[in-house]
Each structure stands twice: as C-alpha cells, then as structure tokens.
C-alpha cells in the first residue's frame, strides 16, 4: 500500500493521458486514425501480439545482457586500474575525452561491416555505449574518494585486495552505480537502434517491422510493452541501488 502511495502522482498522470488519448481517438476522432489508432484497435492487436512480443523480448535480452554486463565487467575493471594509478589516469584522460562523446549509433554501419555476424555487431553497439559510463563512473568514484578513508586504511595497514574491497570500492560505489544507471538507459536506447538495423528479431525489430507496413496499432503495442519492461527493470535497479548504498546519508534520510 505504501508503494502505491509513493506513485499516486504517476498513476494519476497515466490515467489522465489514457483518457485524453481515448477522447482524441475513439470518441472524437481528432487525431489521424492511421497514425494514432484508438485503444479499441490497440487492445486486440496488443493481445494477439503477446506471444510474438514475449519472443521478441527474449531475443532482445540475448543482446542486452552480454552487452551490458560485458561493459560493466570491463569498464569497472579498467576503471579501477586507471583510477588507482594517477600517472595512467593522467595519460589516458585525453584519449577517454576524445572517444567518449562518439555516438555508438554512428558506428553501427562500420560494426556491421567488420563483425562476422549481425548478432555480434548488435552486442558491440550496446557494449560500446555502456562501457563509457561504467569506466567514467569508476574512475571518478575512485579519484574523488575522501582522503581520510585512504589515511584510515594506511593506519589499519590495509593493502592490495583488502584495501580495494574494504575501502576503495565501497567509497566509490555511489559513483559506480550512478554510471551503471546511465549505462542501463543507454543500453535500452542502443538496443532499439541495433535491432532496427542489424537484426531480424527483438522488440526494436518488431516495432520497425510493423511501422514499415503502417500497422501503428501494433507499433504502439510494441512501444507500450517495451516501455513497461523498461519501467520494471529501472525500478528493480533502483531497489538494488538502495540496498547496496544503504549506508549512505542520502538513503537514510
């Protein structure tokens, strides 16, 4: 009950948007019926498309999971290496600044050309987009650690992996998880782009396929299904983040 009260504003906004759309389509036909089909058409199409939508979701996860977690592993690992080595950080920072802003979507045609399969090129697009937030979040989190934590670790004679897992990573965790959240947002955006151009399955392909045939009832069905899934994942990530960062002042307020 408490969780529902926390999102009462969101529920009201969604209900209002739903009613406005019904009035503008099914009742008064203000909007173009082809581009904006009413829920009287979307509902049956959504129901009949459910088997294909679930199949598309599984296909999307096969791209999303290796791309995202591969970026998490390599980004955090390399970030620890760079963040704990001031000289390495100083020398690599200009290179990171140069490569970071390049949109991964612009590399899609090139990746399709050099990768042996469309699957690998799609995973690579997601990997590249998610890698930089993890890398930057880890480096910044380590570089900005309060000096008193490092001084305390010296007093306790913590070195190597003990210092890493007991001091550095916990202190850098807020920044790392902030980067993880940014990477997750990028992952869904790049997933849709990759599936529209480099695969023949997945939620992005589902939406693009029916858009080509002007079946906008199924297009909206795909968007609603994908949006609902993203909301569930992001809320789950926020709960995970709060559980990991239970000790932070902001979470205790």
Automatic annotation (TrEMBL):
Classification via InterPro entries: MetI-like, MetI-like_sf
Transmembrane segments: 7-31, 63-83, 95-112, 118-143, 164-197, 217-237
CDD domains the UniProt entry points to: TM_PBP2
GO CC annotations on file: plasma membrane
Keywords from the UniProt entry: Cell membrane, Membrane, Transmembrane, Transmembrane helix, Transport
Pfam family, one: BPD_transp_1
Subcellular location: Cell membrane
Span of domain ABC transmembrane type-1: 57-235
PROSITE patterns linked: ABC_TM1 (PS50928)
Record-linked SUPFAM superfamilies: MetI-like (SSF161098)
Topology term for the membrane: Multi-pass membrane protein
Swiss-Prot/TrEMBL GO biological process terms: transmembrane transport
Domain of life: Bacteria
Transmembrane listed as a keyword: yes
Family, per entry: Belongs to the binding-protein-dependent transport system permease family.
Protein name (database record): ABC transporter permease subunit
Native organism: Tissierella pigra
């Amino acid at each position: 009950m408490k969780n529902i009260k926390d999102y009462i504003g969101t529920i009201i906004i969604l209900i209002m948007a739903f009613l406005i759309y019904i009035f503008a389509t099914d009742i008064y036909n203000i909007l173009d019926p082809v581009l904006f089909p009413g829920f009287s058409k979307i509902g049956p199409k959504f129901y009949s498309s459910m088997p294909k939508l679930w199949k598309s979701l599984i296909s999307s996860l096969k791209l999303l999971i290796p791309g995202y977690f591969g970026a998490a592993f390599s980004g955090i690992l390399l970030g620890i290496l760079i963040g704990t080595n001031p000289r390495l950080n100083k020398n690599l920072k200009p290179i990171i600044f140069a490569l970071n802003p390049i949109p991964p979507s612009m590399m899609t045609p090139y990746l399709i050309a050099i990768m042996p399969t469309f699957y690998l090129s799609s995973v690579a697009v997601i990997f590249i987009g998610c890698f930089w937030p993890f890398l930057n979040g880890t480096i910044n989190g380590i570089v900005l650690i309060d000096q008193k934590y490092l001084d305390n670790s010296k007093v306790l004679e913590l070195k190597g992996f003990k210092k890493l897992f007991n001091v550095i990573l916990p202190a850098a965790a807020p920044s790392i998880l902030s980067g993880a959240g940014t990477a997750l947002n990028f992952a869904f955006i790049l997933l849709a782009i990759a599936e529209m151009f480099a695969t023949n399955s997945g939620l992005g392909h589902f939406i693009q396929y029916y858009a080509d045939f002007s079946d906008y009832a199924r297009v909206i069905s795909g968007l609603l299904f994908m949006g609902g899934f993203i909301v569930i994942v992001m809320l789950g990530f926020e709960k995970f983040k709060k559980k990991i960062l239970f000790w932070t002042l902001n979470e205790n307020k």
